[in-house]
Amino acid sequence: MSLNSIDDVDIPDSDVATPDSRDTLSHWFAQTRSQTEALAEPLSPEDQTIQSMEDASPAKWHRAHTSWFFETFVLSPHEIGYEPFKASFNYLFNSYYEAVGARHPRPHRGLLTRPSAAEVGDYRGHVDAAVSKLIADCCDETWSAVAPLIILGLNHEQQHQELLLMDILHAFSCNPLEPAYTGTTPLLSASTSNIEWIDFDGGIHQVGIDQNAEQRFFFDNEGPRHDVALRPFRLANRLVTNAEWIAFIEDGGYKQTDLWLADAWTMIQSKGWSAPLYWRKEDDQSWSAFGLRGRQPVSPNAPVCHVSFYEADAFAAWSGKRLPTESEWEIAARAQDIDGNFLSRHALRPLPAPAGSTLSQMYGDVWEHTSSPYTPYPGFKAAKGAVGEYNGKFMSNQMVLRGGSCVTPEGHIRSTYRNFFYPHQRWMFAGVRLAEDA
Prior knowledge:
By secondary structure, this protein is α+β, with helices and mostly antiparallel strands.
């Protein structure tokens, strides 16, 4: 396969429902694995090796790690006589699973010039063939054990598809040439109306996954379902725009100490932040932003993107509003169709809100910061064994984001889905929706 850009790739709408047959799961497995390769196709071998910061990983590493996941948790325990592609890969491509063994230090993943990108492709082919054979040939008892692990692995791979794009964008932003991941497209000139406020009732609400009744896939951190007590609240009908963020900048928002949390003020002073990540002031004093389609003028009516929780919180304070809690966001989102600007739209950037006063942009475009810390729900218990390290061990010092983004695979998001990042991080596609007490 030879592609000039991601626009040449047919990115499918992945079905995250639990497959009801081996054929369905086999198809979804092949579809997801090929999508990862399609996302890496526009990258040269040199592109795939670069690691621009400790939070990011090389594209080659993402391709290998997602294969390691299937080899470690599906094939080695359940395929009799399975021969790992290379024993050393267990050390190179383990991410953070302490129960599995030692691993190459995360900050040094960019030093792995070997194995080559081509050999990682061979590794993926080896794993793909073995998993496909296992799905087709295993006995019913083994099938009942491996099917949930394969489904988890596919959802895990979809997460890494988004990470691959986040990470290569950051890497390209560090290159003075500012290479585009894919071709440019015209800026949209759609107008955006003033924010309207949508009211929601207070009282006792249930949030989270009902783990005993839910038939679709979910991560363990999405449950158990539990009661929350909320006061009446209001949400903005759309996301905060670039034009509104420019007004914040021009009003000295990054210089007003009273808007910022103490840790946030220390961060912006030490890092010299004065605008969202990837923004630059041009000679004519207009703003441009670097993205997967290269550097382009900031689109005033598109949602602001690549801002941290610290910045989102300061903007909300400047606006006289606040960020929604994750429970408020979920209650508002559950009545909305899961339809939006996801990866399959090929926009690869946030798009302006549609006209109208109804609640919009709850899914896709940008991950929405909430004011909620990432902590376990009441009754949460991590799974036993290494797989239990997937989410639970990170429930400290991070904040929850909701809704998915323009680089999230279609079908990967639910109203209960909890993403999480540290409050200073901003290389993810994250933006802001305002809230207030009713």
